[in-house]
Amino acid sequence: MHVFLIILAIVAGLGIAGYFSARAKAYALAGESLKRLNSRPAHHASFVAMAAIVPAVLLMAVWMVVSPLVIGAQIRSDFPEGVQQQPAAAQSLTYNTVISVAYGLRQLPEDARARVDEDAGALRAVLAANGIPLAASPRPFVLSSAERFNALSAASRAAMAVAALAVALVSLGLAYRAVRPSFHARNRVEQAVLAALVLASTIAILTTVGIVLSMLTESLRFFSQVPPADFFFGTVWDPRFAAAGESGSIGQFGLIPLLAGTLYISIVAMAVAVPIGLYAAIYMSEYAGPKLRAIAKPLLEVLAGIPTIVYGFFALVTVGPLLRDISAELNGLFTGSYRNFIEAQSVLTAGVVMGIMLIPFVSSLSDDIINAVPDSLRKGSLGLGATQSETIKRVVLPAALPGVVGALLLTASRAIGETMIVVLAAGVAAQLQFSPLEPMTTVTVKIVNQLTGDLEFNTPQTLVAFALGLTLFVITLCLNVYALYIVRKYREQYA
Predict the structure, then answer these.
(1) Which position has the higher pLDDT, 420 or 267?
(2) What is the reported pTM?
(3) 415 near 354, Cβ under 8 Å?
(4) Tens of pLDDT along 83-116?
């Protein structure tokens, strides 16, 4: 990686040099009047800089993707015949061992490296002594394969450096020669920027498509083993990890308890976050002075930067025990029995803490939307004799309502996808019940549970995680689309 950074720095230096050289040349060609140039000197300079940097960077990116594949194919072809006849998984394991040994050899000091050369059987001990443990003693051919891997990698890096620098210099020279008064440098620069924007958009779209296809493919494998009706309408979640692989004992994968827990906790969280966040937004937007707003708004938004695991610890250590103890005191006050009726891990605990986490999302989005309402509406209402509170209730909030509703739906999507707070505050019990004082769990928690462990990747117990993920994706997608629909359909246009 350090070689890549060095080459990148050199290429960037060439681009900077080309920028200032082309800029000076453009000014020299323009003379006393820039009107002689078809494009401004900055456009000529930017064109030369991009010509020096972009092709070389693209070449290095392609090289770094293709080179490991080529080197890996050569290393695998040198494996003994007995290894090449093994299944693909076993060959991949051997190749990973070669890579680990190759990395270890590069990190060894000279004396340790000399010891390995003298006694190959001491390889594992030497690597372990230098902080590079191996699961087992590698077979004799692994050392030679690792050395060949290092040699090929070094040769590849050297070739990449030469090729990248050559491309950068040639592109720089050709672009510099193209600088002349009639050259349409601005058009070329705009085309390059447009291509970069299209590439970024394409990457984002393809990433989304890839995520959907990967989940859909694995979900279809799951539904080939478990009927969709049993998954979507089942009321029992019992994957039976211990019985995985046994005929007729794949377990029960009812989605209803998980979906109910997800929606239940999200509703409680929104019941906490929406009033507090919305009232905070109204106060900061309509009542707070500029100085107070400049202090209060950043302090409130600090909550959005706290990791969710910290909220989980807060729920586990503070909020859960507090609710449990309060319930015990209330029960003792009214019945004489100090038995708590609120569990430390419960829907209420998770909902309250998640609601606290969502407050800055609601307040910040709502505040921006309320501030977008034109002041002319406020002044007109006040000029007609309405009070400030009446103006807020009858003018400002109705005008901002579509945007606020969209913000609340986006916040609900954020609540549905939360995991860590639920794990620590609501537990992992997949049960279907209606009391918010008892523990429940969510879809995201079970996705983590199903992908944790050493089960084979083709079992229903593992593949169900993709079905859960696809279900959650569809739910959040529908919420987001509906939020955008509301905003666009009911948005008021103000002159």
Answers:
(1) 267
(2) 0.71
(3) yes
(4) 777 787 777 878 888 887 787 777 777 767 676 6
Alpha helices in 140-184 (DSSP H): 140-178
- Give the E-state strand segments of 195-314 in sequence order: 237-238, 252-253
Q: Per-residue b/e over 134-143, b at no fewer than 16 CB within 10 Å?
A: beeebeeebb
Tally of CA atoms within 13 A in the half-sphere of 270 that contains its CB: 17
The pLDDT assigned to 53 comes to 92
Residue 116: which residues within 8 A CB-CB, separation 6 or more?
A: 105, 108, 122, 123, 126, 143
Count CB-CB contacts under 10 A for residue 54: 18
Mean pLDDT confidence for 326-344: 83
Question: HSE on the CB side for 320, CA within 13 Å?
Answer: 23
CA nearest 378: which of 366, 368, 387? 387
Q: What is the CA radius of gyration of the chain?
A: 32
CA–CA separation, 342 and 138 (whole Å): 56
Q: Are 494 and 374 a contacting pair, CB within 8 Å?
A: yes
> Mapping DSSP to helix (H, G, I), strand (E, B) and coil, where does residue 252 land?
strand
Residues 365, 405: Cα–Cα separation, whole Å:
10
Give the position of tokens 């910290």.
310
Cα 318 from Cα 442, distance rounded (Å): 22
Pick from 214-223, 420-429, 449-458: least confident: 449-458
Residue of 110, 113, 89, 90 lying closest to 101 (CA atoms): 113
Percent of the chain with pLDDT over 90: 21
Distance, in Å, from the CA atom of 447 to the CA atom of 443, rounded to the nearest integer, reads 6
- The answer to which of 14-23, 205-214, 336-345 has the lowest mean pLDDT is 336-345
Q: Is 238 helix (H, G, I), strand (E, B) or coil?
A: strand
Q: Is 70 exceeded by the pLDDT of residue 27?
A: yes
Q: Which residue has the tokens 């209803």?
A: 256
